């Protein structure tokens, strides 16, 4: 990662975002937005999670929503961030309008545009300077200003607006990653979000890494649940019936005295596996290796608990000595 490049990108994002906020609703503003989102996408692909947003709360909102909202949608989440960004822009451009000084959480705007898509979206408004009203339930309001002044903290509101742009683009990148993987392996949005929080890279890099991991898990746990998710790594699921193994234990269980290779799983793709991994058959306490006969079944011509030929002069329990 080039520190100079990320610093340069952040400066350009800062300048272009302010220009976007101040621009009038014209086709030129759409071009500014398109260029802004391109810079943001590059920036988000170069930095770790802790540097993606002005506030860590923004990134946590995406992760929490993906994990706990059963109907979570990245498209709806991106639209919710856009709605909050627009509200912040209204505050910046028209701070004297008192209808923006309070937010009714039961209103149609809040319910349908924000709350249905994100888990805990009020945190974004709290970071703008709003607080819960002591006079009304489900109302957030800005502090009462001095006479002749407005209560809007432009710096706080601008930071939240910028985070909303970053979050909106991050949702788009997450959706692209999910689309790239789900055509090859089952994967949940929560998996993609968690992976993205721990890895740096473009959409293509993330898709390639996730597909590789899924492919590895498919061969490591071929008989587990149909979804080889990252969350199942090391948890192979319910036991499955094993096919006949010609006297050898099923793949996945070592024979007597055998150890697994360093990675913890026996190789399953070598044609001479049973010849190279297990020693030649030896007599072990009267039983062939890796197999246990049923109780009472003959062993070398003699039933269990029946005296057999014993070399040397050692007496056998139950027979007179020679």
Overall description:
A 3-stranded antiparallel beta sheet has the order 1-3-2, covered by helices on one side. Helices cover 46% and strands 2% of the residues. It has helices at 3-22, 27-44, 56-68, 74-93, 108-115, 122-128, 154-182, 189-198, 203-220, 273-277, and strands at residues 102-104, 131-132, 139-141. With 322 residues, the chain is mainly α. A hairpin with a 6-residue loop joins strand 2 and strand 3. It is globular and about 70 Å long. Helix 2 (27-44) packs across helix 7 (154-182), helix 3 (56-68) runs antiparallel to helix 8 (189-198) and helix 6 (122-128) runs antiparallel to helix 7. The longest helix has 29 residues, at 154-182.
């Amino acid at each position: 990662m080039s520190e100079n490049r990320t610093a340069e990108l952040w400066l350009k994002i800062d300048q272009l975002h302010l220009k976007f906020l101040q621009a009038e609703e014209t086709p030129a503003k759409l071009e500014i937005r398109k260029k802004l989102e391109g810079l943001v996408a590059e920036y988000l692909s170069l930095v770790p999670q802790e540097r993606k947003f002005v506030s860590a709360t923004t990134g946590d909102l995406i992760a929490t929503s993906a994990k706990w909202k059963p109907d979570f949608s990245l498209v709806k989440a991106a639209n919710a961030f856009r709605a909050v960004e627009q509200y912040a822009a209204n505050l910046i451009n028209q701070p004297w309008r008192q209808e923006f000084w309070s937010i009714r959480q039961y209103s149609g705007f809040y319910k349908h545009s924000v709350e249905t898509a994100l888990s805990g979206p009020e945190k974004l408004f709290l970071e703008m300077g709003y607080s819960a009203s002591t006079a009304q339930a489900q109302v957030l309001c800005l502090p009462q200003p001095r006479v002749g002044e407005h209560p809007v903290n432009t710096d706080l509101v601008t930071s939240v607006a910028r985070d909303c742009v970053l979050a909106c683009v991050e949702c788009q990148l997450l959706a692209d990653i999910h689309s790239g993987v789900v055509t090859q392996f089952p994967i949940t949005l929560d998996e993609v979000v968690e992976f993205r929080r721990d890895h740096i890279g473009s959409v293509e890099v993330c898709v390639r890494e996730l597909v590789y991991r899924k492919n590895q898990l498919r061969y490591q746990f071929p008989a587990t649940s149909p979804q080889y998710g990252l969350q199942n790594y090391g948890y192979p699921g319910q036991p499955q019936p094993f096919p006949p193994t010609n006297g050898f234990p099923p793949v996945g269980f070592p024979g007597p005295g055998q150890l697994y290779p360093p990675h913890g799983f026996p190789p399953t793709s070598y044609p001479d596996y049973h010849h190279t991994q297990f020693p030649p058959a030896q007599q072990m306490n009267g039983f062939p290796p890796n197999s246990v006969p049923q109780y009472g079944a003959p062993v070398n011509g003699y039933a269990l608990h029946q005296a057999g030929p014993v070399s040397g002069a050692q007496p056998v329990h139950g027979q007179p000595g020679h």
